[in-house]
Amino acid sequence: MIKQLTRSLCALTVAASLSPCWAATDPSKIHDSLVVMDTHLDTPALLVQPGFDIMHAHTYSDDFSQVDVPRMDEGGLDGGFWVIYTPQGPVDEEGFEAARDTALLRAMAIHKMVASHPDTFALAKEPEDAKNIAAQGKKIVYISMENAYPLGEDLSLLDTFYKMGLRMIGPVHFKNNQFGDSSTDPEGPKYDGLSPLGEKLVKRANELGIVLDGSHAHDALVEDMIALSKTPIILSHSGTKAIYDHPRNVDDSLLKKLVESGGVIHVNAYGSYLTELPSDPERSKAYGVLFKQMGDIANMTAEEVAALKAKRKQIDLEHPAVRATFEDYMEHFLHILEVAGPKHTGVGADWDGGGGVERMMDVAALPLITERLLAEGYSKDDLADIWGNNALRLLQQAQDYADSLDQ
């Protein structure tokens, strides 16, 4: 009750344009003092793109990218989970093989980034690595997998990716697959949660010490993972249905189950999951044509990639995007904090995967979150949990369980 009153007084103070109650403490100094991590960085998709240099300062308006070292420095982002993503394809051997190859290339691109810039990046495998790496002034590189589809039906591949550094995995993406049900498959659920193979995936991930990720999963699959997993699960980039009723978001009932099990939800900044945005058929049509022309961007020349981006800029000029706002994002964030609390909430904005809102279109703007949460009355300790400690706790619990099996 006292904390709620404090937050209310802070909010009223800010609304009245008076000196905020945290004025005695510089928000930027607090932000810089924390280990700041994001649990869903889709940037490896750009690492395989000809002409993209992670060390170079880019801008979203120039090439649509959202993460690079100069902007990480500006936004105080120490790193996080760099995603191996593969789109959902046919659930058959040919699809599995193609996805496996794509996933291996993404994993190799992450390792190449670290190996090429050893003074800037360091691969993290253990829970304690994050703070040690940040203390050295380097960027934290944990590896996660969005969509377990590339594993096919051979779970020994999970061991292979674990050896490459994989420490988080989400069973599904936009559509159902061999592991279970997606929240957004137009045909609806197939298994009413996890498939039998999905249950084996949960068991093997637990045995290895890999955190399970319920983002993109159908609510029934999330509930299955909460029930079956021996360690708490994460929602690495999700929102709340209480603010916007979208299948990708979770309702308060499921959120409370997640919290009771020890899990953590990291708040997504994907605009169409935050609020109802006006449709633009002409923009959608133009992008549809562009995507058909695109092919495999990794096999393009730098000049072809530049030409593709020029076409995208032209579409945006002729059919401007209507974006969700920073306030839309914070409405989700603050509601989740009220329900879940700061020990079960974090940031997973979906950078380079569609995330970004007005005023926060790349990682350079991340201090806005810290500033706003301090204004709402959350403490430095709360911010330390939100920005890093909660995800690291889940990693530690996953590792502890795996270690216990070896005794």
TrEMBL record:
SUPFAM superfamilies (UniProt xref): Metallo-dependent hydrolases
InterPro entries: Metal_Hydrolase (IPR032466), Pept_M19 (IPR008257)
Keyword Nucleotide-binding appears in the UniProt entry: no
Gene Ontology MF annotations: metallodipeptidase activity
UniProt keyword terms in alphabetical order: Signal
Source organism, top-level taxon: Bacteria
Protein name from the UniProt record: Membrane dipeptidase
Native source organism of the sequence: Alteromonas profundi
